[in-house]
Write a structure and sequence with these properties.
There is one protein chain. By secondary structure, the protein is α+β, with helices and mostly antiparallel strands. The protein is built from 4 helices and 4 strands. The longest helix is centred in the C-terminal third of the chain and has 13 residues.
């Protein structure tokens, strides 16, 4: 909740996300269907299980081919999140 109300509303974070990222929110208990990178259709809960997500918030970064390049769990303030975005870009 804190990342939603603070980090994701920070103007610098919003501007950085606009350059090189496509944010997608997933409800770990949700039933909305998502088409994953391999073409499989999964519910949000199924995707969470597939990615072995055990806690929230979990951030998963994919490269252009859909491969996971970075995954982390835990609350981040805006500056920490900006650093994570830069790290994700360097791993692609």
């Amino acid at each position: 909740e804190r990342m939603t109300s603070v980090t994701f509303r920070d103007p610098a974070v919003i501007e950085r996300l606009k350059r090189g990222f496509v944010p997608v929110g997933v409800n770990v208990r949700g039933d909305r269907e998502i088409v994953w990178t391999n073409g499989a259709t999964l519910s949000e809960k199924q995707l969470t299980a597939t990615l072995q997500i055990r806690g929230t918030p979990t951030l998963v970064f994919l490269d252009e081919k859909g491969a996971i390049v970075l995954q982390t769990t835990g609350d981040l303030d805006p500056r920490q999140f900006e650093g994570l975005l830069e790290r994700a870009l360097k791993t692609r």
